[in-house]
Specification:
The complex is a heterodimer of chains A (499) and B (368). Chain A is α/β, with parallel strands linked by helices and 499 residues long. Helices cover 34% and strands 24% of the residues of chain A. Chain A is built from 18 helices and 19 strands. Helices cover 75% and strands 0% of the residues of chain B. Chain B has 368 residues and is an all-alpha fold. The chains are: A alpha/beta (499), B mainly alpha (368).
Chain lengths: 499, 368
C-alpha cells in the first residue's frame, strides 16, 4: 500500500528510489521516503530493515549508489553531515555524539566555525531554552545530565544550526514513558511551527499517536507509505513482517524435544518475578517469570533497549537482581555481544584466554601444561584455526575467536562442564560458514543436556535455533511459540498495550 | 620423540637467548654511539669520555660490583615496582615518593633502636619491613583515590612524589634530625645495622641478592600463580577480566598498588641501610623516575628488568667516572637515558600500530 502523499507543495525532505549496497549486502533497494512540510513522519521497520541507512544517506553520512534526494524544490547531494546541516537537516543519533566532560554550551559550540564566542552561545542557548521549554543549563557538564537531558542537548545542537528537518533515530529507546511522552509532544509542536521531523522507531503506538504520515521499510524496500490516520497497528505489523509463511518454510521449526512436563522436572534456570535495574537506576526487566529446562534452546527477542541486555546478564550471573528469585547453576557460560571488550584478552595467548574463565575463583597455582592441553583439545573439537595454542588472540579471525570463546564457555570436557549457557548475538559479524558452525555447536550442547539461552537481534536466527522464545518488550517478558509473526507482534508491543 | 622435543626446546631457548644477546648488544652499541655523538657535538674528547664511561662501569671487577651493581639494586627494586604496576594496569609514576617514604620508615626504625646479638638481624628485617609498609601506605593513598573516586594515578602518584620529598625534608629538620641540629639529615645508622657486604665483591651488599630474588619471585608469581594471572588479565582488559573471569578488578588493582609501593619502599629501605646510612633529602638521584625507563626498556618483563637495571646502573656509574676523569658533566648521561626511553616508546608504538589497523571504518558502521 503506497498512497501518494505529495500533494502540491514541495517536500521538506524526499528520498527517491535510493539504492545502497555494502559489499554483497543490499541495504536499500529503491527505497523512498517523502516528508511533507509541517509534519511528523514515522519511519518503521524491523532491525536491519534499512531505516538508519536511509536516514544516514539523508544526513550525508553515506552516499547512495542510485536515487535522488530533494529538499524543497532543489535536488541535493549532501556528501557530509556538514553539508546536510547547511541544507537544514539535523540528526539525533541513537548513540549520542556528545563530549561528556564538556559543558552543554561547549558541546553545542563544537562544530561551529570561526571565532568561539561562548558568551554568545550561552545567550543563544538560554533563548532556545525559553522558546522550546527545554530547560538546559548551558554551564552544566554533559556527563552530569540524565539521558533525557543529553538527548535535548543533541536536539538543541541541531536546532542551533537552524535545522528545519530533524531526524531522530529511536529517540524513545533510552527514555522512560513520561520522558517519551514529553519528547513526542515537543516534536508535534516543532512540526506545527512549520518544520518537519522524521521519527525512526520500532514502536507502533508511537508512530500512530504522534505521526502524520508513516513509511514502512522491509528488507531495504519501502513497502508502505500512508497517512497515519489510514494505518492501523495490524496493517503496519503486516507490512513490517511481510509474509511470515515464507520465512517459516525456509526455517522449519526445530523439533521441540523438551515437553513442558520435562521442563518443570528438570529446570536449569528458573526466574520468579525477577526485576532488574540498570546502572542508571531505570527498571529494565519487570517481574519476569520463566523456566529454561535441560536440553532446550530458548530464544530471546526484543528491540534495542527492551531490557534483554540486562536480562541476559542476570541469567549469566553478571548482573544482580533488584528483586525476585533466580535459580541457576553456580557457573553459567556467557558469550557477550562485544567479544573484544567483554570476553577476551586480545594480546594474550589463547591458553590465557581459556584460563580466564573462572580466574577470579582460582586458588594458588595455574598448571599451564594442563591449560595448554585443554586449550588444544577445545581447538580440535571446535575446529579453531590458529597458529597453535600460544598464538595471541588478536591473530585469529573473528569466527575463530568466537568459536574459542564459545568452546571456553561451554567447557565440554572441563571439570565444570556448563549446564547452562547464555549467548548474545553470537554470530554477529561472522561469515556464513562460521555462523553455521556456531549453530551446530549450540544444537550439540542442547542435545548433550545443556540449557541454552540465545538472544539475537536477527529474528531469523532465533527462529532457526529456538524451540521457545521469550520476547522482551519495555521490560516485560512474554513467552511465544516459534512463530515469526507472533514474535514480531510481541516485539512491537502489539497486544500488550492496547494496539 | 622425547629427544626430538627436548632438542626443539633447546633450540627455542637458544634462539631466545641469542635474540636477547643481540638486542643487548644493539642497545649497548646505540648507547656508545649516542654518547660519542653527544661528546663530539658538545666538544669533549670522545675517546677519553668513552674510556672513562667503560672504566667506571665494567672496566674492573671493583667498578662493576661497587659502582655498577650497587647502583643497580635500587633500580632493580623500583623497576620491578613499576613493571608490576604497569602489568596490572596501574600507571604508578610514584616510585620516587614511595622510595622516599620507605627510606624514611626504614631509617626511623633503624635509628630508634640499638640492638645487640640476635636482635640485630631481627631489627634489620624489621627496618626493611617498615620500609615496605611505608612505600605501600604511600601508594595506598593513590589506590584509594583511584578505586574510590576514579582519580587518575598518573596524576596522584606524581603529586605524592613532591609531598614525600617535603615530608623527608621536614623529618630531617625535625624529628629525625641529627643530634647537633646543624645539618639537614638524620644521625648515622649504627654500623651493626648496615646490610652485610658480599665477600669479595667490594661494596656490594646482600641487598643485591634480595633484589635479584625479588625479580625472580616476581617473574614466577606472574607466570605460575592464579593471582599473578589475575593481575595480568586485569591489566590487559579489566572489563573482560570482570565479565569473563569473574575477577574482582577493584581488589586486584588495589593489591597491585600496594605491592608496587612496597617494592619501591623496600628500595628506599635497602638504600639507607647499605649505601647512605642516613636519611637526607637527596637520598635518591631519581631512582623512582629512572625505574620507569628501566621497566619500559625491559618491556615489563621481570628478568629483563633485572638486566636493564644493571645496564642503567652501569650508565650512572660510568657517568660519575666521566665527570671525574674526563670532566664531562654527568647530566649528559641523563640525556642519553632520556633518548633511549624515547626510542623504545616510539619503537613500541610503531609496532602496536602495525598490529592494529585503523578502526575508523568500524566505528562508522554503528547500526545498519
Amino acid at each position: 500500500m503506497i498512497e501518494p502523499l505529495s500533494g502540491d507543495e514541495p517536500p521538506a525532505l524526499a528520498l527517491h528510489d535510493i539504492d545502497k549496497r555494502f559489499g554483497a549486502t543490499r541495504a536499500l533497494t529503491s527505497a523512498s521516503l517523502h516528508v511533507r512540510p509541517a509534519t511528523v513522519h514515522a519511519l518503521l521497520g524491523e532491525n536491519g530493515a534499512g531505516k538508519s541507512t536511509l536516514m544516514r544517506i539523508a544526513y550525508g553520512m553515506e552516499r547512495p549508489d542510485a536515487g535522488t534526494i530533494r529538499i524543497g524544490d532543489a535536488t541535493v547531494r549532501p556528501d557530509s553531515p556538514a553539508a546536510a546541516i547547511a541544507l537544514g537537516v539535523g540528526m539525533v543519533h541513537q548513540h549520542f555524539t556528545l563530549v561528556p566532560v564538556m559543558t552543554v554550551a561547549e558541546n553545542i559550540a563544537l562544530g561551529g566555525h570561526g571565532v568561539l564566542d561562548l558568551r554568545r552561545t550561552i545567550a543563544a542557548i538560554r533563548e532556545l531554552s525559553d522558546r522550546t521549554g527545554f530547560a538546559l543549563d548551558p554551564l552544566q557538564r554533559v556527563e552530569q545530565l540524565p539521558v533525557a537531558a543529553q538527548q535535548r542537548v543533541e536536539i538543541a545542537k541541531a536546532l542551533m544550526r537552524n535545522a528545519r528537518v530533524l531526524v531522530l533515530d529511536e529517540p524513545t529507546a533510552v527514555l522512560s514513558p513520561s520522558e517519551s511522552a514529553a519528547l513526542l509532544r515537543w516534536l508535534r509542536s516543532f512540526a506545527d511551527e512549520g518544520n518537519a521531523a522524521v521519527l525512526i522507531t520500532h514502536k507502533l503506538g508511537e508512530a500512530l499517536s504522534v505521526a502524520d504520515d508513516v513509511t514502512v521499510l522491509r528488507r531495504g524496500r519501502t513497502v508502505l507509505t500512508a497517512p497515519a490516520a489510514h494505518a492501523t497497528a495490524a496493517s503496519l505489523t503486516d507490512a513490517m513482517l511481510g509474509s511470515a509463511k515464507v520465512a517459516e518454510r525456509m526455517h522449519p521449526a526445530p523439533d521441540a524435544r523438551v515437553s513442558a512436563q520435562d521442563r518443570r522436572s528438570h529446570p536449569i534456570l528458573r526466574a520468579e518475578r525477577v526485576t532488574i535495574v540498570d546502572d542508571t537506576g531505570v527498571v529494565r526487566v519487570r517481574e519476569a517469570s520463566f523456566v529454561v529446562g535441560a536440553g532446550e534452546i530458548v530464544g530471546v527477542a526484543g528491540v534495542e533497549g527492551g531490557g534483554q541486555r540486562e536480562l541476559l546478564r542476570a541469567l549469566a550471573g553478571r548482573r544482580p537482581l533488584a528483586s525476585g528469585i533466580l535459580e541457576r547453576p553456580s557457573v553459567v557460560g556467557f558469550v557477550p555481544e562485544d567479544r573484544h571488550r567483554d570476553a577476551v584478552l586480545l594480546d594474550r595467548p589463547l591458553t590465557e584466554n581459556v584460563a580466564l574463565r573462572g580466574a577470579g575463583a582460582r586458588r594458588r597455582f595455574i598448571d599451564w601444561r594442563a591449560v595448554r592441553a585443554h586449550t588444544e583439545s577445545l581447538m580440535r573439537t571446535f575446529d579453531v584455526r590458529a597458529e597453535g595454542s600460544r598464538a595471541p588472540m588478536r591473530t585469529l579471525s573473528g569466527g575463530n575467536q568466537q568459536k574459542l570463546v564459545l568452546a571456553r564457555e561451554l567447557d565440554i570436557d572441563g571439570a565444570s562442564g556448563s549446564q547452562a549457557i547464555v549467548l548474545e548475538n553470537p554470530t554477529r559479524g561472522l561469515d556464513v560458514r562460521a555462523t553455521s558452525e556456531i549453530h551446530d555447536r549450540l544444537r550439540a550442547a542442547r542435545d548433550a543436556g545443556a540449557a541454552v539461552v540465545v538472544y539475537s537481534s536477527d529474528i531469523d536466527e532465533v527462529l532457526l535455533l529456538a524451540s521457545r522464545v521469550l520476547v522482551v518488550y519495555a521490560g516485560v517478558v512474554r513467552e511465544s511459540s516459534v512463530d515469526r509473526e507472533a514474535i514480531g507482534r510481541l516485539m512491537l508491543g502489539v497486544g500488550t498495550d492496547g494496539h | 620423540m622425547a629427544t626430538e622435543k627436548a632438542a626443539n626446546r633447546l633450540l627455542a631457548t637458544t634462539r631466545t637467548v641469542s635474540r636477547e644477546l643481540v638486542l643487548t648488544t644493539v642497545v649497548a652499541a646505540c648507547i656508545a654511539g649516542a654518547t660519542a655523538l653527544l661528546l663530539l657535538v658538545v666538544g669533549f674528547p670522545v675517546g677519553r669520555g668513552l674510556a672513562a664511561l667503560w672504566v667506571g662501569s665494567f672496566g674492573s671487577w671493583y667498578a662493576f660490583t661497587s659502582a655498577t651493581l650497587v647502583r643497580a639494586v635500587p633500580l632493580m627494586l623500583t623497576g620491578s615496582a613499576v613493571a608490576l604496576a604497569f602489568r596490572g594496569g596501574v600507571l604508578n609514576i610514584g616510585g620516587e615518593g614511595q622510595l622516599l617514604m620507605g627510606a624514611a620508615a626504614g631509617a626511623g626504625v633503624a635509628l630508634a633502636v640499638s640492638p645487640s646479638g640476635v636482635m640485630i638481624p631481627v631489627t634489620i628485617a624489621g627496618a626493611l619491613l617498615a620500609a615496605s609498609i611505608g612505600g605501600a601506605l604511600w601508594a595506598a593513598v593513590a589506590a584509594f583515590l583511584r578505586v574510590r573516586f576514579g582519580v587518575l594515578e598518573v596524576i596522584s602518584t606524581i603529586m605524592l612524589n613532591f609531598v614525600a620529598l617535603h615530608v623527608v625534608s621536614y623529618l630531617v629538620r625535625g624529628p629525625l634530625q641529627e643530634p647537633t641540629g646543624i645539618y639537614p639529615q638524620s644521625a648515622t645508622i649504627a654500623d651493626a645495622l648496615h646490610l652485610p657486604r658480599i665477600a669479595g665483591a667490594g661494596r656490594l651488599h646482600v641487598g643485591f641478592l634480595l633484589a635479584v630474588l625479588i625479580s625472580a619471585t616476581f617473574g614466577w608469581v606472574l607466570r605460575h600463580t592464579a593471582s599473578g594471572f589475575r593481575l595480568v588479565a586485569t591489566g590487559e582488559n579489566p572489563t573482560a577480566a570482570a565479565s569473563a573471569g569473574g575477577i574482582d578488578v577493584s581488589a586486584t588493582t588495589a593489591r597491585v598498588f600496594l605491592l608496587s609501593g612496597a617494592l619501591a619502599g623496600l628500595a628506599g629501605g635497602v638504600e639507607v641501610l647499605s649505601v647512605t646510612f642516613a636519611l637526607y633529602e637527596n637520598i635518591s638521584p631519581g631512582y623512582g623516575y629512572t625505574a620507569i625507563a628501566v621497566a619500559l626498556l625491559a618491556r615489563l618483563d621481570p628478568w629483563r628488568v633485572a638486566a636493564t637495571a644493571v645496564l642503567f646502573g652501569a650508565l650512572e656509574a660510568g657517568a660519575g667516572a666521566m665527570q671525574r676523569d674526563a670532566g664531562v658533566p654527568s647530566t649528559l648521561v641523563s640525556v642519553i637515558e632520556a633518548a633511549l626511553i624515547l626510542a623504545v616508546v616510539v619503537a613500541q608504538s610503531v609496532r602496536s600500530r602495525r598490529q592494529e589497523p585503523d578502526t575508523g571504518a568500524q566505528m562508522l558502521s554503528v547500526d545498519a
